[in-house]
# Entry
Amino acid sequence: MTPPLATERVLSTLNQDGTRHWIHPRLAAGRFLRGRKVVGYALIAMFLVLPFVHVGGRPALLLDVLTQELSVFGAVFKATDGYLMMLLGLIIVVTVFLVTALFGRVWCGWACPQTVYLEHVFRPIERWLEGSPSQRRKLDAARGVHGRRVLKWLIYAALSFVLANVFLAYFVGVDRLATWVLVSPLQHPGGFMTVAGVAALMLFDFGYFREQTCNVACPYGRLQSVLLDRQSLIIGYDTRRGEPRGKPKKHLPVIGERGDCIDCSACVAVCPTGIDIREGLQMECIGCAQCIDACDAVMDRIAKPRKLIGYTSQDELEGKPRRLLRTRTILYPVLLAGVTGLFVWALGGETTQVHVERAQGPIFVELPDGMISSQARIKLDNETDEERSYAVHLSRAPDAKLRTPQVTWQVQGGRSMTLPLFVDVPRSSFVHGKRVVSLRVADDRGFARIVEVTLLGPEGAVP
# Structure
């Protein structure tokens, strides 16, 4: 039974009957492709080198999922740094809003890892081994196993394995990853399966799923209506100049005024997501500028001005001037500056995090002299890169006495330590089984913090 055909526009990666439409874009040489190659290969080099770069004795960028720490160029964020992580997340979100409002989807076409690796690594290998788009379509239609295609998939698998290892280095560190790769998988089956799983996902993405990641999986295109305005930079087709389109015909009179577009479909043939930019702003457009390079080459051949397709805005396409200053381009920088200022202030002001933890074991004991000795536990997170010496004292509690197993505690840089403390207070000072005392925590570099600890004792204490 033949499936019904779609009566409306479908995704560029689907045929009207719902089957996969394979896209084999041509490569249009031009100034934007040259610029994208420079940016793309620079980003690839940075991606490959950054895990091995250390700042202040730590990896330049590491989201350690095992220790739950984030290292960013010498700064260390822990899972307990909720306030700092929230500010960092806000900085990223507002930056995305601002860049999109100004430059549209320039990230997608120029810097997104999906685009960079697919267009500058995997597809060039495919073109080298399988030839032009028409030759690749013949291979798609042919039956049997073809040596060039087998070789392509072997190279894809090797590249995916390398990229998976580098990618995981940002989450587990180079040293731990080296153990996973070099040591027998029997000694670390979990690590081996992680590397193999990520490599398989990358092979599936760049070898099969490809542009569907942008068209189907990535939400960024669907957020265009919210993130863009009519002044945002987009790639657009100038309908006022290009229409009515038509192929030039020799020895025939021209009836009426014809636009500059000769309907050659070069812009469609080079699009990596398979759209026709002449249909207007579309969700699938990633702003890669391949259609601009292709159209400019055609305009040069027929002696017409460039920028029939170009970087523009929706208002410019309607003949209105483009304005850099508008509500969102003023609001976003102000918000970004405020959040960044708070982040820098919070980052520079904290060298140690002090947390009060729940008591373990016997919460309190009664001493021979009638005093109640109640347990207090404090966790110290030394967020600096150097060792610190900490001391704890009672603050404003003349009737209490602090008992500690040692006078000071040495905490290594980037490490944590839980201090077991006992506070002796009179039985009569407990109200409904509770007594609040203030403890002053200070290090040998000027840090000091007063925290309140609730002691549990007689009359309602929970053992």
